[in-house]
User: Fold these one by one.
Assistant:
Number 1:
Amino acid sequence: MARTINDIVIAGAGQAGARAAEALRARGFKGSITMIGEEPHPPYERPQLSKSLLQSSDATVAYIKKAANWTETLDVRIETGAAAIDCDPDRRIVSTADGRTFHFDGLLLATGTRPRRLAALEDAHIEVQYLRSLEDALQFRRHIQAGSRIAIVGGGVIGLEAACAAARNGCHVTVIESEERLLARAFPGLISRLVADRHRSHGVEFVFGATVIGSTSASVGLSNGAQIPADLVLVGIGVTPSTELAIRLGLPAAEGIAVDNCGRTAAPEVFCAGDAALQWSRCHGRAVRVETWANAQNQAISVAANMIGDAVEYNDPPWFWTDQYDLNIQVAGDMREAEHIVRGNPDSGRFSIIAMRGAEPVGALSVNAAKDMAMLRRIIAANAKPQRADLESPGYDLRAALKPH
């Protein structure tokens, strides 16, 4: 028999935890909700850390809600600055680092991720930064003054957005990428070249196929023998899921916290949402962790419904975006290990690339083509199978692919 849910604890006060708490109240849950967050802030969305907060020196932090709105309007108890470090599944108690305990009937693990650290710079003589919290973003913003020498380790989305902000502020920026091109793990080569060229036009330099092996007080040393002058190093080499609580519960969590399409883990009345969740993706054909704003919001809303007995499966294709100079790039689904169809003329600066496996579109990427992407996301989600010739034609109305035949 299912346990009655009166007390819900949300371990993690980021975007996923916050959106789940909102959704619980919106669906009429009247019991207690306690959200436990390690950071000293009310919940906020992380894209601003590498976007708006770096683009303007006077940009202010956007919180999902003010602390008072959580407690007074939604009746959600928020415990900030309180890392949840242990869980007793038999007594159904979550413990924090300062010794407090919180009882739950239902537990949501929204523990997110932490930056993957670079061992070669752990005891560096140069200042080293990661970009995961508000404090990180504000500290980096203070450093990107005209003339500063910034070395960025990692040519992924976060590193490149930071490079964009630094270059626009007049910094001397060098991006160090271990692969032979930018964004190699998720983007086609055409986009890698386009992005690299745009950065170079703003003075950014690149070193490919090399890793950081050491540092001095004014430079980083690379595996190819080069020394890159720098006043600050920003490391953006990915993240790892925060799975300590899941492990305490005996859950498998080597690659993330495994969940079904309803967000349920293998432990009774324990759910997981957001970056730490290892969830099935039809586009990828396997379980993946989806580290995006859209997933942190929409999957969390779905999981909240399931926590209180409403059967809502979540199957949205992954989707994210990045803005770099005059490029708005959006990606949906999975672009890897697929045949690519180009829609539009890349030389025009506005086009899309559609990833096909057989007759099925499993991914799409748009450059300055937001309207195309809005429809391509729907096509992928609906598992529609339009003709390839239609997808290639800029004159084809993508809405037709969703109409019954």
Number 2:
Amino acid sequence: MQVQQRPPLSAEFPEPIKRDAKKPTPLGGLRVIDFTHFIAGPFCTMMLGEFGADVIKVEAPLKGDDFRHYPPAEPTLDGQGAPFLWGNSNKRSITIDLKNPLGREVVLDLLRGADVLVENFSTGVMDRLGLGYAALSKINPRLVYCSISAYGRTGEFSDRLGFDPVLQAESGFIATNGYPDREGVRTAASTMDIATAMMACNAVQACLLARERTGRGQYVELSLHDTAMLMIGFQAMQHLFSGVEPTRNGNTSPDTAPTGVFRAKDTSFYISSSNTGIFQRLFAQVIERPDMAEDEELMTRAGRLKRRDELFSVLNEEFGKQPWSYWQPRLRAAGVASGQVRTVPQALRSAETASRGLVTRLPHPTAGEVPKIALPFIFSDTPLADPFAAPILGQHTREILQGTLGYDEGRVDQLMSGGAFGPPAERR
């Protein structure tokens, strides 16, 4: 099988637009010490980094964050996986052996001047390392300490390991997704990890705001389980009030019609018809069926749900007569929410994505250039920091020791020979 050569990034994606250097970043001047791995923790600290905080990612020597090795391996990234780049931009990496007393001294020096610590080790690990909140709040009372776990840090389930798809299963999320005639399905995207990361980022910033008023940091913890229970959405409230168990509805909606996937002559697209006004514009202006738009029974949500099959049949018959290029402008002009069912490659290269500057390219020390997916924030007065690529393992060890902590060459050499940053032959 012939392998297709990927076009150079420069042929497809621009460099990011530089921020106005005269304006401050939202979190400029703050230091975040990052003890996270995989997705929920790293994505949180990545956002803090793009908000302008100096994020120092503390990684184990030799291996680093396990997510560095998530497939597919990329030779230009020292054989590590490309997915790591997605959640670790705007960070500096230092390798430290946390079980080495010399390494622990370095960590404590970093934490004395830090504003935020984020960790997602298994319950009890940070305490065993002497890096729990009770110990660190004594040396740095202003520290905001954010702990992320699967099932919480207290209670009978605090020892349980849990990953995104497990929490999708246990929260009822899987049971509500997919088609009614088969087993429920998980989302391919790490929904619970990403949502927990966003919650954690919000929590950290709330604690920083509170610190401005109280002068003290605090401990905040989040769990994937708690976030997952929120992510099942308003269906939870529907059940608690009605007693009815939510069902799987595929691409249709149990609450609105006609909502779902339809087929033009050349491609599929999605329509969300969430109220009577949209329904009427869809039938009167888009497919020119004013008789149905003014049908008394179809003027009600209940009536449209009752006649869902009929509505779908009429729409698909009409949509099949013309390509998407015909229907898209008509739907847009009529104010009907709709969109083509795209593949990931199509979405990354769509006109909508390009117009927002969401996919760009960044310099990288080993790969030359790597792609970057932008965060969805635009601030008028405190723009995001200019993005830079996720670090290679230990890339900034010496820079952090000398530039951030002010260690001299002799101190650095002593720590390195003592194994604080891993075996000398393997460190960067």
Number 3:
Amino acid sequence: MADGLTTAGGTRSTPARNRWRARYRVVPWWVRITVVYVLARVLTGLMLLAFARVQAANSFTVQRPGYLSFASIWDGAWYRVIATSGYPSTLPIDPAGHVTENAWAFMPAYPFTVRGLMLLTGASFELVAVSVSLLAGWGAALVFRRLMGRFLDPARATFATVLFCVAPVSAMFQVAYAESMGLLLLLVALLLMVDRRWWAMLPVVLLLGMTRPTGLAFAFLVVLFVGAWAIRPASVRSTEPLTLRRLVPPAVVAVVSGLVGLAWPAIAWAVTGVVTAYTDTELAWRSSYIGWKELVPFTPWVQGFGWWFGQPGGTVLLVIVLAGFGAFVCMPAARRIGIELRLWGVAYLVYLLAVFFPQSSTWRILVPIAPLLGIVALPRSWVYRMAVVVAFVGLQWVWLSSTWWVDGYDWTPP
């Protein structure tokens, strides 16, 4: 026999492989995740640079821009405006009297953080904004691994984090967008919820609601969770009853999250004097698709699927997508990641169905349901795992090509 050894099950192992495994096990988990995150960001960075090399001059950048400039286009340009000039007190209006695209569509926590660091360091917007996203993304990866570890064994939790780092829209971790910061805060809030540290959630929920528009969705999550808690089997309720003392903390979190979800539209109203300043601004982004329409809750997805796929095919496809999502989060294997994470996926999707118009930025908007990657990470097959990683990396290229790269008159913002 060669220098390999054969186990009772017939699997060959070598001393070198055993030594590698032993060394791997003594490496702290956060070091492993940091290495994965850095390698993933280098890979995505090379993709971004490849597109930057063929980028023609446009309204955002010069021809063949550098990395920082290319990573600060699209919504990054709006965050630059906010970081340097704040929000307008007068809404821009087109000749027909409609509110046009403006800075009120974007929450203040990320650009104001960038502004503070710019004043402190004297660095450019591009450098500070991308750096904040990179660091927040790193923190999000570490918290994500901790969150997955609450439900999955270490190998699966680590693989779920690998998928998190190489996901099709993971370029968001290294561009001038608020997604990294928002995702970090969301994952911290979910981890605190899983640990039932309700009072510690309050400052996180407040900041989260001023970073990304998730306040109402998170409030709905807490309501769903309390409801699920109340209808558990009698045998479980008897050992962990839902008493008034236990109900108050999550109720406070739900109320605070709901209020912060309404705070930004109220602030926009107070500054501009227009009651519907925020919603009118959001509607401006969908006007290029379906024209100017009133916001009627739970109609945007029907309108959007009708625009993209026609009717009645669009509505049929929407029903299929929603049924597929429901089956995904309700299948027996999905229970492995806990009811909190599955309910978050449901709560966030319901929120999107109520207010969001599906367009080219849909894939980015779905970033907050990243905890559901824990379900995707369950199979142990190495063939499956490699195939998913390769598919995710390939989809990164597809996403960058179809949305981030500016190709002439481009109406598909990421």
Number 4:
Amino acid sequence: MSVIQVPGLLSFTIAILVFFAGANLNRFIPVLARWSIPEAVTGGLLAALATLAAYEFLSVEISFTLAARDMLLLYFFTGVGLNARLSDLVAGGKPLLILLAITLVFLVIQNAIAIGASNLLGLPPGMAILLGSTSLIGGHGTTIAWAPIITNRFGLTSALEVGIASATLGLVIASLIGGPIAQYLITRYRLSGSKDEELTIGVSRTAASTHDDEVSYISLLRTLLVTNIAILIGYTLHEIILDAGINLPLFVVCLLVAIVMTNTIPSIAPNLPWPTRSRALSLISDLSLNVFLAMSLMSMQLWGLGGLGLALVIVLAIQTIAAIAYILFVVFPAMGRNYEAAVISAGFCGISLGATPTAIANMTAVTKIHGAATIAFIILPLVSAFFIDLANAAALGFLVR
């Protein structure tokens, strides 16, 4: 087995090509666009299948350098924060609490399903933790952090491999079902978003096709400057928080810094141009998200899924069915049965089975077709990238003990 390590700039360039491959495939297969499958997901999965073929048939393992992906994640979440006006945060107060509550309930349900199914199938002790919120709600990062602890506690030597495989499959599923679920709800209940309101991320497909998304280099540079300043402050604050013994992801700190900046600086300096809801910020956020997602999916080592036995596949199938049922019968009604609720339903697939960027990508694909959903883009990242991580850590600590 030979290994090819693709360097950073080439990995970034390939990710752009992967996105365009996905965009062309979505145009060639209209059902993909109709069901709001993100272009980066289509292209990323295609690239992952290509690396799987190289591994299986050519004995070549291809891995990508992903430093640029981590930076894109910071740009994306900082952009979300810069778009978060205080009025939106206030309006999102009650929906935020509702979404947090139903997410916490699902966290318990997900772990209960993992424990029950694992016991029925006779899986080794500790396996249930890996097939619940560790790998699904938590994703790859939480899995990597907790796998050594689970190994030491239960003697499960394959904990990391099982957790990564479960998180990878969950990410794929979340990327594929979010759009169809939202499309089903929008069609059934005849819902639509605001066509006049500027999208939080990206531009509508109509605007993009008519080249109504042009911005000047001045607006782009101004937006990049503000974004970079927010990220630099986030880096500094993150170090202070770590020294205080609080472990928050860097992108969450940048998100919070951007929220504070966008709700204070325009009031202090009203004549200062600010990028909130600007086309430049929307495009930068869209670019960052799509390339990030393309890099994440194309770098998946799908051959690792070969380690999933039939029993583990059954557990994940049950988890997927439970997530879909919960979205349709709990999340959508609880969030108001309106268009925002349908968009949040697409995002909840990412919360329950994938990752926050997957959730945002699902919502972005829906809003590009059906219109803006401002509150959804404010409350879901706060729940998925902040509150639920804290709750998940507490739940996993209890399960491991």
